[in-house]
Write a structure and sequence with these properties.
By secondary structure, this protein is an alpha+beta fold. It has 3 domains: 64 residues, Uridine Diphospho-n-acetylenolpyruvylglucosamine Reductase, domain 2 (2-Layer Sandwich); 144 residues, Uridine Diphospho-n-acetylenolpyruvylglucosamine Reductase, domain 3, CATH 3.30.465.10; 104 residues, UDP-N-acetylenolpyruvoylglucosamine reductase, C-terminal domain (Uridine Diphospho-n-acetylenolpyruvylglucosamine Reductase, domain 1, Alpha-Beta Complex). Helices cover 25% and strands 25% of the residues. It has 9 helices and 21 strands. Strands 1, 2, 3, 5 and 6 form a 5-stranded mixed beta sheet that branches. The longest helix is centred in the C-terminal third of the chain and has 19 residues. The N terminus is likely disordered.
Length: 355
């Protein structure tokens, strides 16, 4: 798919919003219902969103639903981008430029790129969700963040009523953050994402879980390729994280908190085994999962919500949970971690307010 940047179409397509059950549209499996919902499959449908937003008063863009906490009733109009296609659109200074529609499944994209020899995304394998959400969250795993591979984002600006291309530096990407989270709600609809992938492969194997591959590569340089890294990352994630198809979850629920050097020193003196990583600016990033585990939450339940028994960062739906159950558990964990370590954990998922 290659979306024309100058205009979407000579004629806009009409849109009709309908009520939709969103329970199967979020990986936490929370019972939720949209009063009005539309699916976008063609670029010329996007301009018609303006009238729908005026009619319904607000807009929520919902992709794969892997990083969201949905209320029982979602107001406004829910927009589901379903733009498809993966295309090699050019080359740039020793890099492939690959464009993917916002509605493509993220993991399927990574697998396809590795199979095509467009490497560079393999460390991000098996992250749930759709391509369009990747720059919103600046997804990252095993030593790589999207910002390291992002070329640009093709998006509809609801304010300007225009299709624009935002270069990577214009997206404001930071740790699990971007301008798409901070600009006015409902401003952006992402249609496609473009990636800048190196034609000369450079494996990223510094993450502890990948050290076995790093050692193998030192012994025999040709024994490790992008497919081997892809397979290793998939195996690691499957061993550590629950499958949303079997038990509802949104992956890591909390961000790893950053603290000052002074705060870190005080914690390290008081708590042996503190897991922390020094950052370039002198601060330390703490392992949120370790903090939660030390507070005794791993494997515990609070009503219909619980903490996964293998990964304390993952909150799960034990069956029939609603947004309030997940948020009550999250608050209880936050309170315990704050009380013990003086650190406030920040949720990763977007919490959508009720209608």
């Amino acid at each position: 798919m290659s979306i024309p940047l100058s205009k979407t179409s000579s004629k806009s397509a009409a849109l009709v919003a309908e009520p939709v059950d969103l329970t199967a549209c979020n990986t936490l499996g929370l019972r939720s219902h949209a009063r009005a919902c539309v699916t976008l499959e063609q670029a010329n449908q996007v301009p018609a969103l303006h009238d729908l937003v005026v009619l319904h008063g607000a807009m929520l863009v919902l992709g794969g639903g892997s990083n969201v906490v949905l209320p029982e009733e979602v107001g406004g109009v829910v927009v589901r981008p379903a733009f498809k296609g993966v295309t090699l659109v050019g080359e740039d200074d020793g890099h492939w430029i690959v464009e993917a529609g916002a509605g493509e499944n993220w993991h399927a994209l990574v697998a396809y790129c590795v199979a095509q020899g467009w490497w560079g995304l393999e460390n991000l394998a098996l992250i749930p969700g759709n391509v369009g959400a990747a720059p919103v969250q600046n997804i990252g795993a095993y030593g790589i963040e999207l910002v390291d591979r992002l070329h640009s984002v093709v998006a509809w600006d609801m304010h300007a009523q225009a299709l624009v291309t935002l270069a990577s530096k214009e997206c404001g990407l930071a740790y699990r953050d971007s301008r798409f989270k901070h600009d006015a709600a409902g401003r952006w609809v992402i249609l496609a994402v473009r990636f800048r992938l190196p034609q000369t492969w450079q494996p990223m194997l510094d993450y502890p879980d990948l050290h076995a591959l790093k050692e193998a590569r030192l012994v025999a340089d040709d024994s490790v390729d992008a497919k081997a890294v892809f397979d290793a990352v998939c195996a690691i994630r499957r061993a550590k994280l629950p499958d949303p198809a079997r038990i509802g979850n949104a992956g890591s629920f909390f961000k790893n908190p950053w603290v000052s050097a002074e705060h870190h020193r005080a914690l390290a003196e008081k708590f042996s085994g503190l897991v922390a990583y020094r950052q370039a600016d002198g601060r330390y990033k703490l392992a949120a999962g370790w903090l939660i585990d030390q507070c005794g939450w791993k494997g515990r339940d609070l009503g219909a919500a619980g903490v996964h028994d293998r990964q304390a960062l993952v909150l799960v739906n034990r069956g029939g949970a609603r947004a309030g159950d997940i948020l009550a558990l999250a608050r209880a964990i936050q309170d315990d971690v704050m009380g013990r370590y003086g650190v406030m954990l920040e949720p990763e998922p977007v919490v959508v307010p009720p209608a």
